[in-house]
TrEMBL record:
Residues 1-213 form the GH16 domain. The keyword Ligase does not apply. This is GH16 domain-containing protein. Keywords: Glycosidase, Hydrolase, Signal. SUPFAM superfamilies: Concanavalin A-like lectins/glucanases. GO terms for biological process: cell wall biogenesis; xyloglucan metabolic process. Residues 227-250 are annotated as: Disordered. GO terms for molecular function: hydrolase activity, hydrolyzing O-glycosyl compounds; xyloglucan:xyloglucosyl transferase activity. Residues 1-21 form the signal peptide. InterPro entries: Beta-glucanase-like, Beta-glucanase/XTH, ConA-like_dom_sf, GH16_AS, XTH. It comes from Eragrostis curvula (weeping love grass). The active site is at E98, E102.
């Protein structure tokens, strides 16, 4: 096998290695594992928010540098005010990079808010919010974050809802060099941005609040070996050694 064929093979192997995200094999319960309940085939998980300080968060075991992550998600039904269900990618450690889908609950019968944001070296302030054109609690819908060196695209059921281009040449921070992990989580928030300006309150008598994730698809470039994949690989190895983040919002 010539060197270039070997390289192609290794790239394909790296791409393929993370395509199936069985929750037992690929994910680690990070925050409050007792609130995660796995489907029998481990391709789905329910995350419960049981009280104001006990939600749940899972993280993939392997970070990635560029690629697409998708999940089918069914959001908390009924009165979900004050709950935030999240599907996102983030680096670990300080001065983090992050790309988010955050689903902000509401009173029964009122629409969710789909909140998108992007952080590069801790700089966020790039929120854009959407109202869904369907009831996201009635069934599973497919949410995708696609991250390349040129742009980040957020998709809902295959429809691009937001594009954030890399404008680093105009001094807009953009995540390019540090591998991110994929996360699913549910948490409680009393912030103005999650309570429609303080108008809605969580009704804890309705707890536990449960969000369901299924068929997570990690179509990503792994950041593990082989070294032929380039300089980014080393960064991936370093991030394995980084301490896990403390429990934080999202
Ligand atoms: C929340 O629930 C956890 C168990 O999951 C319990 O340990 C904790 O004391 C509870 N906290 C509050 C504020 O009720
Ligand atoms: C979700 O959408 C992505 C992107 O269109 C696709 O690759 C993936 O297969 C879809 N997931 C499911 C479970 O249909």
């Amino acid at each position: 096998m010539g060197r270039s064929y070997l390289l192609v093979f290794l790239v394909i192997a790296a791409l393929a290695s993370l395509a199936i995200a069985n929750f037992h094999d690929e994910w680690a319960a990070e925050g409050e594992p007792q609130n995660a309940k796995y489907a029998d085939d481990a391709n789905g998980v329910s995350l419960s928010l049981v009280n104001s300080s006990s939600g749940c968060r899972l993280r993939t075991k392997t970070p990635f540098l560029y690629g697409s992550i998708s999940s089918l998600i069914k959001l908390v039904p009924g009165d979900s005010a004050g709950t935030v269900t999240a599907f996102y990618a983030s680096t670990v450690g300080s001065s983090h990079d992050e790309i988010d889908f955050e689903f902000i609950g509401n009173e029964a019968g009122k629409p969710y808010t789909f909140h998108t944001n992007l952080y590069a070296t801790n700089v966020g302030n790039k929120e854009v919010e959407f109202k869904p054109w369907f009831d996201p609690t009635a069934g599973f819908h497919n949410y995708t974050i696609s991250w390349s060196s040129c742009m980040v695209v957020w998709y809902v059921d295959g429809i691009p809802i937001r594009v954030f281009r890399n404008e680093a040449r105009n001094d807009v921070a953009y995540p390019t060099s540090r591998p991110m992990y994929s996360y699913v989580s549910i948490w409680a928030s009393t912030g103005a941005w999650t309570t429609h300006g303080g108008q809605v309150k969580t009704d804890w008598s309705k707890a536990p609040f449960v969000a369901n994730f299924h068929n997570v698809n990690l179509d990503v470039r792994g950041s593990g070996p082989p070294a032929e994949l380039g300089g980014h690989v080393a960064a991936g190895h370093r991030s394995h050694a980084a301490p896990p983040p403390t429990i934080r919002r999202g």
